[in-house]
Amino acid sequence: MTRAALREHIRLLKSRYARAEDVDARKRHGARIGGLLGVRSTCGSAVSPSLRLPVAKALAERTALALRTAVQEGVVPGGGVAFLNCAARLRERLHAVEEPHHQAACRILIEALSEPARVIFHNAGYEPGEIFGTLAHSGPNTVFDAMGRRFLDVREGSVLDSAPVLKACLRNAISTAALALTIDSVVHLSHPEMVGKPE
């Protein structure tokens, strides 16, 4: 098979992968694409003895799926910074919006998009306001490495998030919020079961 024919075959498999609705079909296409590209990965895991093998296997499969989608669809600045960048764009749009309910929706989204970074910074033992201030005056590719306790350019470090995983999170959050705003009551489980896979 010539290189051009191989490239065309991989392009065809990628389009089939993108259109496949069946999870098994996506896995088969993804494995075939990885094999043709020479991409293989090994996932190691320090699993707690209390976790059973099926749980550990499911966790490893979800991790591999997230990595595969990141390789195929890209990565964005991690640690909540990608959402902070979206919030900054919404702040710009807020001034152009005239209708009060659209302004309220923008303000709610700005606050919600800032929350993941705020929680990460707070849980790491930092004052979120100080870090937000530094990030606001830095470029959109500046991230805060909480473990390394430093600011760095996303191209220099390893603080990245999978773009499709973040898109799925944002889509689910907006869908849930819209549902909560349009119905009379909401049942919130204090310990919800973890469901869903990144697309």
Summarize the structure.
The model has no long low-confidence stretch (mean pLDDT 80). This protein has a two-stranded antiparallel ribbon with strand order 1-4. The longest helix is centred in the middle third of the chain and has 24 residues.
Task: Describe the protein.
By secondary structure, this protein is mainly alpha-helical. Helix content is 60%, strand content 7%. The chain contains seven helices and four strands; from the N terminus they run H-H-H-E-H-H-H-E-E-E-H. It has helices at 3-19, 23-37, 53-73, 81-94, 100-123, 128-136, 163-182; strands at residues 75-77, 142-145, 150-153, 160-162. Helix 1 (3-19) runs antiparallel to helix 2, helix 4 runs antiparallel to helix 5 and helix 5 (100-123) crosses helix 6. The mean pLDDT is 80.
Topology, element by element:
Layout: H1 3-19, H2 23-37, H3 53-73, E1 75-77, H4 81-94, H5 100-123, H6 128-136, E2 142-145, E3 150-153, E4 160-162, H7 163-182
Antiparallel strand pairs: 1-4, 2-3
Helix pairs in contact: 1-2, 4-5, 5-6
Question: How many strands?
Answer: 4
- Proportion of residues in β-strands: 5-15%
Order of helices and strands: HHHEHHHEEEH
Largest sheet data: 2 strands, antiparallel
What is the structural class? mainly alpha
Low-pLDDT regions: none
C-alpha geometry: globular
Strand order of the largest sheet: 1-4
Number of helices in the DSSP assignment: 7
Query: What is the rounded distance between the termini?
Result: 31 Å
Tell me the radius of gyration.
20 Å
User: What do the pLDDT scores average to?
Assistant: 80
Helix content: 55-70%
